[in-house]
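New to this. Help decode the following:
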Amino acid sequence: MRSNTKASNYKLIKEIRIKFRKFFIFYKNRFPSCTEKDLSNEFKRQATFDVILSKLNKKSRDFLLNLCMKDQNVNAKYKLNKVLGRKSHLFHVVFPSIWPFLTSMGAFFFLSYLLFFVNDVENAVKHLFFAFLFLGWSVHHWFRAIIDEATFKGHHTLVVRRGLIYGFWLFIASEIMLFFGLFWAFFHCSISPAIQVGFLIPAAGIQNVPYLGVPLFNTSLLLCSSLSVTLAHKGIIRGSFRVVLDGLFITIFLGLTFLFLQINEYKSCMYNISDGAYPSIFYMLTGLHGSHVFVGLVWLIISLFRIIKRHFTTRHYAGFLFAIWYWHFVDIIWIGVYCSIYIWLANSVLIYHLFVGFCIFIILFYFTNG
């Protein structure tokens, strides 16, 4: 009997906390210029009309109101578990979900029909379009479930966020290994060209893209976008809503411009991916990097909408932080692509060393003064 009472109390408190957490976010979204005092007064006014709270005694009602006013951090969760008599732990046990399975199936079908499209299979375009829609639908619902767990239900405690940060760094390490393999292939073919290409990279008849044209402009775009996303990062730390929006809008605009110019550069190239080692590595490195830029832009756009809806605070913005780190990773990878694919193959050794030294100085300056 006692365990059933505790379970019902826990369910009641959980429902009330979720309800008023949604109220906080809705009120901040509707009135961005409201102060903490205005929010507290409106919260108390809304609490007087709550049917569930009106049935509780004064002690229980005051406890729930104070609990809802606090940020859902580790201490609040620990106190809640202590009152309910449950064994408290700071970890989040993920509930069963169908969305990871559907997302993996959508990715499988999308890549399969993409392969059919490249090989000119009949009706591949139509199936590729529907596979893309299915993949986007499943990813949307999966992200929505994660956002609901983190923002509204308060499952992402400090310990959970720390684990997510470690996991994200491991993901970045795997991405570095992916690009490392492609860079290894490029330098292997460049330093010791095969006899089939006349010991030349690029081979005779293939002219590499000049490094002073669109590639240099694209490099400046990504470096500026790194500064603007850093501005947005500083803004969310200081709680400046306008600075975060300005930094994100500038970053998204620069990223879209980069992709547009990259596509136009592909149209101006006089060789295909099957014309030898250099074209294959060129399209693989720049194309893979372009796909990462696209993913980073989608991530930043999602973060932009979440910031407009007030999902992030100055202490709880792990999803936005991961998008910022991912964008910095994309910028650093492009510096390596530009230095190797464009400058190094043009035999501009002096410019290569000067540019690499400048980039290393900028990165060290950022990390030592960040």
Q: What stands out?
A: The chain is about 75% helix and 0% strand. The two ends are 56 Å apart (CA to CA). Residues 158-191 form the longest helix (34 residues). Residues 71-87 have pLDDT under 50 and may be disordered.
